[in-house]
Amino acid sequence: MTDADPLFPDADSRFVVESDCKRCPALAACRNRISWGNGSREADVFVVGEAPGAGEPNADRWRGGNHTGLAYTTRHSGRRVRRLLAAVGHPDAYYTNAVKCFPRAEDGETNREPTAEERANCRAHLETELERVEPEVVVATGKHATKTMLAFDGKSLDGFVDSVLEPVELDAFDATLLPVLHPSYQDVWVSRLGYSPAEYEAAIRERLP
After folding, report:
1. What Cα–Cα distance (Å) separates residue 148 from each residue in 2, 32, 59, 136, 184?
2. How many angstroms separate the CA atoms of 167 and 136, rounded?
3. Where is the Uracil-DNA glycosylase-like domain (predicted)?
4. What is the rounded CA–CA span in Å between residue 205 and residue 87?
5. I need a labelling partner for 69 at 20 to 30 A (CA). Which of 7, 31, 61, 201 fits?
6. If you write DSSP's letter for every residue of 104-168 in order, what string do you get?
7. Model confidence over 15-67: pLDDT tens digits?
């Protein structure tokens, strides 16, 4: 995988499910923009994360979904995940988050974990996206995204690390769930899982259509 910038998503590819959604008053009050899913509606691979971060409003382009209105457009996680998917043969994947708005922490700058109510409020948006795209594989980046997807089948997560790269059938959407490491922790955990970076990338490629 190279360090070159992946393609930045076209703003016209945003899937706006509910314009100016205010189901979560606390999130609506602290967000700059709703970070909608984006990418091909015909994608075989559907990438889902937990929620957008605060982002970097002064960055040239990769400012984050809280400022661009496009999921997975941060300079670190957004670019890294998009590079990974392009490297394994899916530059046209669809990208979204389980929660579409930046969940600001009490310090006013960092993000917090979305509440159960916030996840539930946004669940219908994610379901709408999944039903429209109809992917073969859902790539969940990290523990919280994996838990969100398993919940559609009434399943729980018992130990995230053991679930990484272990495909699970999602009956609710006739798709396969593939948990992967969150990009923020990838460098630390890839070796602990017994992979080199190249082997980890190859393992993901083998599990995608």
Report:
1. 30, 24, 30, 17, 19
2. 12
3. 36-205
4. 8
5. 201
6. B-TTSSSB-PPPHHHHHHHHHHHHHHHHHH--SEEEEESHHHHHHHHHTTT---S-HHHHTT--E
7. 999 999 999 999 999 999 999 999 999 999 999 999 999 999 999 899 999 99
